[in-house]
Amino acid sequence: MNITSPPTVGDGDDKIKVCNIQWFYKIFFPAGTYPAPWLSGGFSTVRFDSASYLPSKQGVVFSELTPTMTMSMSDMRVKGVAQHINQAFTDPGSTLPVKPDNSLKVIPGNAQQGSTLSRLYPGANPVADQAYRDNRSVVNSACASLPHGPDEECDEFPFAATWEGAGVGKGNFSVKYIDKTENSNGGFALANFYASQRILHNDKFSVLITP
């Protein structure tokens, strides 16, 4: 069975169309071993899109699934980024900056806790663009007073390209200077994840940090 959706019939800026599929399977057992064939089934939802800001301009995903970005602390390409996110998840009280009211940070996005982030694409509309600029502005201010070496850059989590970034104003974020190459690689990893999993503006996803 082939299901297609021409981009001209999609809705909204991303030309989205959704198809709900009902499926089932039946298992037949040898005579006398089971009273009747075992029948099971369910529903799957597939989403078609033609998002102009993704490298592949057309694609389809199972939209009921929440994609997970996995990053390893032993991956030398992104080690500093992964270690920073792991610290934010496991020991948020040790991260900087300290919340203005000194309360405990609750940093979202941890797949192991069922927490999610939502993608923010600044080109979507003026509200999204302002939210992205707010994220960047707060991060820059928080990083300005932190000591660092010439080969380090300031990394932030949650990512600036999410609605849960530093600009939300609740203080549930972390900044840390890390190796600039690893920081750049982390940005590429996020962009590749968005592209490969077709994470559209406002789509939810989570992050899993492994050893």
Describe this structure in words.
This protein has two domains: 7-62, no CATH class; 68-210, no CATH class. It has 211 residues and is of the alpha+beta class. It is built from three helices and eight strands, in the order E-E-E-E-H-E-H-E-E-H-E. The model has no long low-confidence stretch (mean pLDDT 92). The strands form three sheets. It has a three-stranded antiparallel beta sheet with strand order 1-2-3, with no helix packed on it. A three-stranded mixed beta sheet has the order 4-8-5, with helices on one face. Strands 6-7 form a two-stranded antiparallel ribbon. The chain is globular.
Any key phrases for this structure?
alpha+beta, 2 domains, three-stranded antiparallel sheet, three-stranded mixed sheet, 211 residues, 3 helices
Average of pLDDT: 92
Helix/strand/pairing category: alpha+beta
Q: Which overall shape is indicated by the principal axes computed on the Cα atoms?
A: globular
Helix content: 10-25%
Count of discrete domains: 2
The poorly predicted ranges are none
Order of helices and strands: EEEEHEHEEHE
H/I helix tally:
3
Summarize the main sheet: 3 strands, antiparallel
Strand content: 25-35%
The largest sheet has its strands arranged as 1-2-3
* Ends apart, CA distance between termini: 41 Å
Rg value: 21 Å
